[in-house]
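In the design runs reported in the main text, the only information available to the sequence generator was the tokenized backbone. The following block is the verbatim input for one such run; it is reproduced so that readers can re-run the procedure and compare outputs position by position.
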């Protein structure tokens, strides 16, 4: 199946749909992205569709293939198509205002790498830093 994202105002993904691969093939059996777009425009009357891949996340293909447009978006209001990156990117991080968009993954990340000290940390958004909240030797009781 081929997947396409319906693009609304401000390039926000408003729906994701799928169509049969055979509907995207030319007479020689080559996959042509535009054929799928043409079919969706004819079916829906909406003119902006962009192909996406259910096998692409964080700029990687989940099965080792070639990633397509950074991420497989959802229509939850937190994804948009970025034409400069030719990819689907998060609009924002829902709780961390200081996170920044990684152009290679299309996702928001802390501006500082997670500490590699064996301890557990939480993000302090107000101070834009990782704060240790549990050491490696700490055990919790229930």
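Verbatim output:
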């Amino acid at each position: 199946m081929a997947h396409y994202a319906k693009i609304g105002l401000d390039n926000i993904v408003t729906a994701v749909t799928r169509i049969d691969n055979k509907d995207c093939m030319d007479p020689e059996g080559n996959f042509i992205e535009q054929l799928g777009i043409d079919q969706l425009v004819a079916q829906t009357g909406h003119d902006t569709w962009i192909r996406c891949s259910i096998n692409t996340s964080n700029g990687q293909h989940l099965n080792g293939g070639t990633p397509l447009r950074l991420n497989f978006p959802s229509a939850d209001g937190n994804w948009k198509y970025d034409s400069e990156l030719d990819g689907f990117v998060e609009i924002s991080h829902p709780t961390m205002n200081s996170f920044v968009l990684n152009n290679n993954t299309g996702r928001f990340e802390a501006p500082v790498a997670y500490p590699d000290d064996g301890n557990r940390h939480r993000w302090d958004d107000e101070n834009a830093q990782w704060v240790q909240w549990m050491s490696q030797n700490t055990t919790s009781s229930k």
